[in-house]
Structures are given as C-alpha cells and as structure tokens.
Design a protein that fits this description.
Order of helices and strands: HHHHHHHHHHHHHH
Number of strands: 0
Structural class: mainly alpha
Helix content: over 70%
Largest sheet: none
Strand content: under 5%
Low-confidence stretches: none
Distance between the termini: 67 Å
Oligomer: single chain
Number of helices: 14
Radius of gyration: 26 Å
Length: about 270
C-alpha cells in the first residue's frame, strides 16, 4: 500500500491500535511528512520524554483516569518516536524493543516461567535484583551504586544509593538524627567561613543525611518534599487571600505581618 492509500485508510478509522501509531509516526518522519518531526533526534526530544513522564505521574497522583489515558498515550508516542528515529538510522526496530523487554520479564520471573519457588513479593524483589546484577555483571556494591542513573532527581538518587549501600548504613533513626545534628553544626561552621563551595558541600551532606532518615522511617523523600511544597503553596495562597482581603499588597507587608497571618492559618 502506498503512502496516499495508507493515509486514506487511517482517516477512515474510528479506533487505532499500536501498529497504527507506528504507521502515523512513520508517515510523519517519512518523505513528504512533517518538517519538524523529520528534524528531530534522540537528543532534541529528550526533555519531552521527561516532561511526558511527569505528566503521567500527575495523572496518577490526582487519580484522574481520563488524564492518565491521554498522558500514557504521549509516553507511548515518545517510545515509538525514539524507535522510529533508530529505525531510520538502521540501529534497531520495534521488534527488537519488544523482544528485549519480553525476554527480560521472562528471565526475571523464574517463579512464573521456570521452577523457582517464592513465598512472597519480598523474595520476588530479592530474586529480581540478583538476576539483574548477574545480567549486568554487577559484582560489587560500587558496581550497583554507579549503575544508578545520575540524571535521576537528586533526592530519588540519594535514596536509591542509601538503599543499595545498606551494608554501610546507620543502625537506626536516632543515629541518623545525631548525624543530622552534626551536619547542621558543620553547615554553621561553613557559613562562618563565607566560602560558597564549603557551604554547598555541607548542605549537600545535610540533605544526604535527611534522605537516610527518610529511609529509616519508611518515608519517600521525593514524595515528602513534594507534599511539603504543595502545602506551602496552599498556605501561601491563603495568606495572600487574607492580605488582599485587607486591601493590601503582599509585597507591602512586613515579614512580621505575614508570619502572624501564616500562624493563624496554620492553627486552622
């Protein structure tokens, strides 16, 4: 079927499947397609993949199935788009992508596809990590630490590093609290020197210790900070509403005035 007939067939459809999505992207990237789509590379649409992923997370967090359906489609488009770029460069094809993930899932679930017995999900995860390490030839703890993607959000990466390095961990939450107190002193000492490099280093150590506390208390550091930020925005909104109700601008209020309003809202 030529390009024109394929387009006509697509336009007549009411429902589309995965193969149709691949066909649409192939047309967009092909001769006579969209100039913008034809110009893109893996690097040029890299950030789009990140953005679309976070929009799926928003749909999950807001429990919005309609939004999730849309955003999952956008993520699927990114997968197809990157694969089409690779296909155009004769690097790999969609069958290679699906083959690799299917092989991985079968290999890492020996309790389903082989004769390994497991008692619970904890054993499943333990086996998964062991199989993954064997696949990637990660023999040492350092191998596992350096394999954690450095481009992950810093809090998420720090949490993963701490979990992987559990052989060199604090014994309990109180021990981490003591370490945090120690790090706070070192931040104060760095502030006294006035050296920005020292201040940055010590605050980094403090943040790393806080992720250790989160781990000991079974708190997701990334999610905890997100919730705290959302709470701050919500309270700030209420503070500003209160100021506007007084016929004033928030920029003209003193810190003491704003703090008093904040305290009143916090009590509520």
């Amino acid at each position: 079927m030529n390009r024109e007939d394929t387009i006509k067939e697509l336009l007549l459809k009411q429902k589309y499947d995965f193969n149709d999505l691949m066909t649409v992207v192939r047309i967009l990237r092909g001769e006579g397609g969209c100039p913008w789509d034809r110009e893109q590379t893996h690097a040029s649409i890299r950030n789009d993949f990140i953005e679309e992923t976070y929009e799926v997370i928003e749909a999950i967090d807001t429990e919005n199935p309609t939004l999730m359906r849309e955003e999952l489609g956008d993520v699927m488009l990114q997968v197809v788009f990157h694969t089409q770029i690779a296909e155009d460069d004769k690097q790999f094809y969609m069958d290679d992508v699906t083959t690799e993930i299917c092989r991985k899932l079968i290999h890492r679930h020996p309790h389903v596809f082989a004769d390994v017995n497991v008692e619970n999900s904890s054993e499943v995860l333990k086996n998964w990590e062991a199989i993954k390490s064997d696949e990637k030839s990660r023999k040492t703890v350092t191998d596992k630490l350096t394999a954690i993607p450095p481009m992950l959000p810093a809090l998420m990466r720090a949490s993963k590093v701490g979990k992987k390095a559990s052989c060199f961990d604090f014994p309990d939450a109180q021990s981490v609290m003591d370490k945090i107190s120690e790090e706070l002193v070192e931040v104060s000492e760095a502030m006294e020197t006035g050296k920005q490099e020292d201040i940055t280093e010590e605050i980094g150590d403090l943040l790393l210790s806080i992720t250790s506390l989160c781990r000991k208390l079974n708190v997701d550091a990334e999610n905890a900070l997100k919730q705290a930020t959302d709470k701050f925005i919500d309270r700030f909104h209420k503070v500003e509403d209160e100021v506007l109700a007084q016929k004033k601008e928030i920029a003209d209020c003193s810190l003491e005035e704003l703090d008093a309003i904040w305290g009143k809202i916090k009590k509520k």
